[in-house]
Amino acid sequence: MRRTETTDVLSKVPVTQLRIFEASARRNSLQAAAAELHLTPSAVSHAIRKMERALGVMLFERSGRNLNLSAEGEALMRHVAPAFAELRRGIELVSPAVLSCCGCIPRRASPPNGWYRA
Questions:
Q1: Residue 32 and residue 26: Cα distance in Å, rounded?
Q2: Per-residue pLDDT at 36
Q3: Helix 41-55 / helix 15-27 crossing angle, nearest 10 deg
Q4: What CA–CA distance (Å, rounded) separates 39 from 17?
Q5: pLDDT at 109 over 60
Q6: Closest by alpha carbon to 25, among 60, 49, 58?
Protein backbone atom coordinates (compact mmCIF):
# COMPACT_ATOMS: atom_id res chain seq x y z
CA MET A 1 0.00 0.00 0.00
CA ARG A 2 1.36 3.41 -0.91
CA ARG A 3 1.77 6.07 1.76
CA THR A 4 -1.09 8.23 0.45
CA GLU A 5 -3.47 5.26 0.59
CA THR A 6 -2.44 4.51 4.18
CA THR A 7 -2.92 8.14 5.18
CA ASP A 8 -6.41 8.17 3.66
CA VAL A 9 -7.43 5.01 5.53
CA LEU A 10 -6.06 6.25 8.85
CA SER A 11 -7.77 9.62 8.48
CA LYS A 12 -11.15 7.86 8.40
CA VAL A 13 -10.84 6.47 11.93
CA PRO A 14 -9.56 8.70 14.74
CA VAL A 15 -7.60 7.09 17.57
CA THR A 16 -10.41 7.93 19.99
CA GLN A 17 -12.76 5.75 17.96
CA LEU A 18 -10.20 2.95 17.96
CA ARG A 19 -9.98 3.23 21.77
CA ILE A 20 -13.74 2.97 22.03
CA PHE A 21 -13.79 0.01 19.65
CA GLU A 22 -11.03 -1.78 21.58
CA ALA A 23 -12.70 -1.31 24.97
CA SER A 24 -16.11 -2.37 23.61
CA ALA A 25 -14.66 -5.45 21.94
CA ARG A 26 -12.57 -6.44 24.96
CA ARG A 27 -15.51 -6.11 27.32
CA ASN A 28 -18.23 -7.29 24.89
CA SER A 29 -20.32 -4.41 26.20
CA LEU A 30 -20.94 -0.80 25.22
CA GLN A 31 -22.01 -0.03 28.79
CA ALA A 32 -18.82 -1.47 30.31
CA ALA A 33 -16.67 0.32 27.72
CA ALA A 34 -18.50 3.57 28.48
CA ALA A 35 -17.83 3.18 32.21
CA GLU A 36 -14.15 2.37 31.59
CA LEU A 37 -13.68 5.36 29.27
CA HIS A 38 -15.82 7.76 31.35
CA LEU A 39 -18.28 8.25 28.48
CA THR A 40 -22.00 7.74 28.16
CA PRO A 41 -23.19 4.52 26.53
CA SER A 42 -24.83 6.68 23.88
CA ALA A 43 -21.49 8.32 23.03
CA VAL A 44 -19.84 4.90 22.74
CA SER A 45 -22.63 3.60 20.51
CA HIS A 46 -22.45 6.71 18.33
CA ALA A 47 -18.66 6.41 17.95
CA ILE A 48 -18.91 2.73 16.98
CA ARG A 49 -21.61 3.43 14.39
CA LYS A 50 -19.59 6.32 12.97
CA MET A 51 -16.54 4.06 12.71
CA GLU A 52 -18.60 1.35 11.01
CA ARG A 53 -19.91 3.88 8.47
CA ALA A 54 -16.40 5.18 7.79
CA LEU A 55 -15.05 1.66 7.22
CA GLY A 56 -18.13 0.40 5.40
CA VAL A 57 -18.43 -2.74 7.56
CA MET A 58 -20.28 -3.86 10.66
CA LEU A 59 -17.78 -4.40 13.47
CA PHE A 60 -20.27 -5.86 15.94
CA GLU A 61 -23.27 -8.13 15.75
CA ARG A 62 -25.95 -6.75 18.04
CA SER A 63 -28.79 -8.77 19.47
CA GLY A 64 -30.67 -6.89 22.16
CA ARG A 65 -28.05 -6.12 24.79
CA ASN A 66 -25.67 -8.79 23.49
CA LEU A 67 -22.64 -7.53 21.63
CA ASN A 68 -20.30 -9.79 19.67
CA LEU A 69 -17.57 -9.01 17.18
CA SER A 70 -18.37 -9.65 13.54
CA ALA A 71 -15.75 -11.36 11.37
CA GLU A 72 -14.50 -7.91 10.31
CA GLY A 73 -14.47 -6.75 13.93
CA GLU A 74 -12.43 -9.78 14.95
CA ALA A 75 -9.95 -9.10 12.15
CA LEU A 76 -9.58 -5.48 13.23
CA MET A 77 -9.28 -6.41 16.92
CA ARG A 78 -6.37 -8.75 16.12
CA HIS A 79 -4.42 -5.65 15.08
CA VAL A 80 -5.86 -2.99 17.38
CA ALA A 81 -5.38 -4.87 20.67
CA PRO A 82 -1.63 -5.48 20.22
CA ALA A 83 -1.18 -1.91 18.96
CA PHE A 84 -2.75 -0.47 22.12
CA ALA A 85 -0.78 -2.89 24.30
CA GLU A 86 2.41 -1.65 22.64
CA LEU A 87 1.37 1.99 23.10
CA ARG A 88 0.67 1.32 26.79
CA ARG A 89 4.14 -0.22 27.19
CA GLY A 90 5.73 2.80 25.52
CA ILE A 91 3.85 5.24 27.71
CA GLU A 92 4.76 3.25 30.82
CA LEU A 93 8.42 3.47 29.81
CA VAL A 94 8.38 7.26 29.87
CA SER A 95 5.89 7.90 32.68
CA PRO A 96 7.26 9.70 35.78
CA ALA A 97 6.66 6.72 38.08
CA VAL A 98 8.71 4.41 35.89
CA LEU A 99 11.43 6.97 35.22
CA SER A 100 11.88 7.74 38.92
CA CYS A 101 12.54 4.03 39.52
CA CYS A 102 15.37 4.04 36.97
CA GLY A 103 17.07 7.10 38.44
CA CYS A 104 15.55 9.76 36.18
CA ILE A 105 13.67 12.52 37.96
CA PRO A 106 11.73 15.46 36.57
CA ARG A 107 13.53 18.80 36.68
CA ARG A 108 10.32 20.73 36.02
CA ALA A 109 6.72 19.97 35.16
CA SER A 110 7.07 19.82 31.36
CA PRO A 111 8.54 16.50 30.23
CA PRO A 112 10.32 15.36 28.15
CA ASN A 113 12.59 18.43 27.99
CA GLY A 114 12.72 18.60 31.76
CA TRP A 115 14.22 15.13 32.43
CA TYR A 116 17.73 14.57 33.64
CA ARG A 117 19.69 11.68 35.10
CA ALA A 118 19.94 11.74 38.89
A1: 10
A2: 97
A3: 110
A4: 12
A5: no
A6: 60
**What is the residue extent of each domain of the chain?**
3-93
26 vs 89: CA distance, rounded Å: 18
Q: Topology of domain 3-93, per CATH? A: Arc Repressor Mutant, subunit A (1.10.10)
Predicted pLDDT at 101: 61
Q: What is the mean pLDDT of residues 50-55?
A: 96
Kindly report the average pLDDT of the chain as a whole number: 84
DSSP-assigned letters across all residues of 64-96: TTEEEE-HHHHHHHHHHHHHHHHHHHHHHHHSH
Q: Which residues contact 45 (CB under 8 A, 6 or more apart)?
A: 30
